[in-house]
Amino acid sequence: MLGIGYPTPLVTYSTGGTPPPFMPDAFTPTDTNEPFLTWPTAVLAQDELPQVISTSYGDIEYTSGKCFSNELGNEHAHEFLTVFPESCPYGTSVGATRDLDPEIVAYNVQNNFVSGGGFSRYFPRPAYQDAAVQAYISGLGSRHAGLYNAGGRGYPDVAVQGYRYATVWNGSKYLVDGISAAAPTMAAIVALVNDALLTDGKPPLGFLNPWLYAGGWRAFRDMSERAGANIVPDISVT
């Protein structure tokens, strides 16, 4: 984030606390969910809110969301999994891409990473997504019918390069993949745009999603033709 957004000031947050309620299932038998609510509660209590926030946290939606029964949790084992807070309609969800010509959905066969998306089971589709998501679902036809909530909030909203990022941690250099690379990159770009707007006496972008779906998408490359299993080699995920 600093590599792209410099010299925009950066504040990092690290929070502890009691983990949220947890519902184990075959996919997530142990509680690895984070005390996510501690962080936004602390941020919202500040006198001045940051203009851009980036988080790479994510848990399976139904393991930490509404208080469903174990029976309902087991039912979800036969559906596509949804990740929170990516599924929340009040933030901008960022997916990952790789390569340039063509730019495609990010994957790495060496570590079984594949960037994904989905539809929330808890949050209904917001009005700003209606046209884009309805067109996407119509294009699917009967494919994956019953495996996702067609009326739920769809994600991601945008996608940014997230494959083999060069990073430095504790003085050592690493190459990493994932949304943890893509989301900070998107946040840094938005921060630079906000900086230019504020310098020109204009308000910052604010909540991006309504603007994105109303026409801001024209500034981005459409990934729909290149995203999907047809361009991802067979990957065994255990």
Question: Can you characterise this structure?
Answer:
This protein has helices at 2-5, 38-44, 61-64, 70-75, 130-140, 179-199, 209-214; strands at residues 59-60, 83-84, 94-98, 104-105, 107-108, 113-114, 118-124, 152-155, 158-161, 165-169, 172-176. By secondary structure, the protein is α+β, with helices and mostly antiparallel strands. The two termini are 31 Å apart. Mean pLDDT is 82; it is low at 67-75 and 225-238.
Question: Secondary-structure element order, as H and E?
Answer: HHEHHEEEEEEHEEEEHH
Portion in helices: 10-25%
Q: Determine the mean pLDDT.
A: 82
Total helix count? 7
Are there runs of 5+ residues with pLDDT below 50, and where? 67-75, 225-238
Q: Assess the beta-strand content as a share of residues.
A: 15-25%
* Structural class based on helices, strands and sheet pairing: alpha+beta
Measured between the Cα atoms of the first and last residue, the distance is 31 Å
The radius of gyration computed from the alpha-carbon positions, rounded to a whole number of angstroms, is: 18 Å
- How do the strands line up in the largest sheet? 4-3-9
What is the count of β-strands?
Answer: 11
Global shape: globular
Biggest sheet layout: 3 strands, mixed
Topology (elements, then pairings):
Blueprint lengths: L1 H4 L32 H7 L14 E2 H4 L5 H6 L7 E2 L9 E5 L5 E2 L1 E2 L4 E2 L3 E7 L5 H11 L11 E4 L2 E4 L3 E5 L2 E5 L2 H21 L9 H6 L24
Parallel strand pairs: 3-9
Antiparallel strand pairs: 1-2, 3-4, 5-6, 7-8, 10-11
